[in-house]
From TrEMBL:
Keyword Amino-acid biosynthesis: yes
InterPro entries found in the cross-reference section: HAD-like_SerB, HAD-like_sf, HAD_sf
Designated name of the protein: phosphoserine phosphatase
Span of the signal peptide: 1-25
GO molecular function annotation: L-phosphoserine phosphatase activity; magnesium ion binding
Organism, scientific name: Maioricimonas rarisocia
UniProt KW Magnesium keyword: yes
Length: 331
């Protein structure tokens, strides 16, 4: 997801000074078009941070949670972590030729990703286990960091860390400058995301919640290590997201941002709390600058959450209409 060359021309926006937003920054969300969506976000932040407002929330309780794939960075044409796993599989196949004879690995190594899709969640988990386990935690972090330095998105030829959304970087900075603590709550692997989350989003690794595999302590000749095993520990998706939030944060968020049905329960849990709440969905409607997809997509499917969001008054972020800019400038 330490040695990364994350070249973000907007670092000053992503990580504002400790004292808050610069006095020169009259608009904290310059990549958001003026309109109801932007106003809903600003109005919420102003209300919960104004000590004289009936909606005021003490700073310690200002928790905002964000899905990652499709909410903070792109997820098409495949999840970025899955792209990493496929590249990693090609590397492992050189060390373990027997992988070339076993499905679903054989098809993937031959460039046939339809078999992987047909195999569903089981096949994807099998690939993730084969490519993410049997290393120490330090080894895995280094492998991910090295991959992110060289891998490029197949459509844009950007580094994957250049596929983050500029408006969401601004939103993260705006919330933190307003006394919020921001968390990632994603179905992606926590060990993968923690490699890049701080430099990409300003979110430190301890504020990243994700899916995990079983890890064990070993004392080796070189010293103590944590070893990643090929066994699922926790899936931080759908019903698992509120569980992960409760387990790792211990407070119900007052704001939640997602983009798919996998985020539905997180949004339900957040908005059901007392006082003023903000639930928001990034709706991918921009086929020209990014992708347009929702109910029929095999990645980031948005169906039930879109309906419930509209019925319950959640903020629906229309990417085409609400974002003046999608990705940060190229370097």
């Amino acid at each position: 997801m330490r040695r990364l060359a994350f070249l973000l021309a907007t670092l000053a926006v992503t990580l504002p000074p400790a004292g808050g937003l610069s006095a020169q920054s009259a608009d904290p969300l310059p990549s958001w078009n003026e309109g109801p969506t932007k106003q809903q976000i600003v109005s919420f932040v102003e209300a919960v941070t104004d000590a004289d407002s009936p909606d005021f929330v003490p700073e310690a309780e200002r928790i905002a949670v964000f899905d990652n794939d499709g909410t903070l960075w792109a997820e098409q044409p495949m999840y970025i972590q899955l792209a990493f796993a496929i590249d990693r599989l090609h590397t492992l196949a050189k060390e373990k030729p027997e992988l070339k004879e076993k499905e679903p690995y054989r098809s993937i190594l031959n460039g046939d990703l339809k078999s992987l899709a047909a195999g569903g969640e089981h096949a994807i988990l099998e690939v993730l286990m084969a490519t993410h386990a049997d290393t120490t935690t330090d080894q895995f972090s280094a492998i991910v960091a090295d991959w992110l330095e060289t891998a490029r998105h197949p459509k844009t030829d950007r580094p994957y860390t250049g596929m983050v959304y500029q408006p969401m970087l601004e939103l993260l900075a705006y919330l933190r400058a307003s006394g919020f603590k921001t968390f990632i709550v994603s179905g992606g692997g926590v060990a993968f995301m923690r490699v890049f989350s701080e430099k990409a989003y300003g979110i430190p690794p301890e504020q990243v919640i994700g899916s995990t595999i079983v890890t064990k302590f070993e004392m080796r000749a070189s010293g103590p290590v944590l070893v990643r095993l090929p066994k699922i520990d926790f899936i931080d998706d759908k019903e698992g997201k509120p569980v992960g939030i409760n387990r790792n944060i211990g407070r119900r968020p007052i704001a939640a941002f997602g983009n798919s049905d996998g985020d539905l329960q997180m949004l339900q849990w957040t908005t059901a709390g007392p006082g003023r709440r903000l639930g928001a969905i990034v709706h991918h409607t921009d086929a020209e600058r990014e992708w347009a997809y929702d109910r029929d997509s095999h990645i980031g499917r948005l169906d039930k959450a879109l309906d419930e969001g509209r019925n319950d008054g959640w903020t629906i972020i229309d990417m085409k209409q609400d974002w003046a800019q999608v990705f940060p400038p190229r370097n």
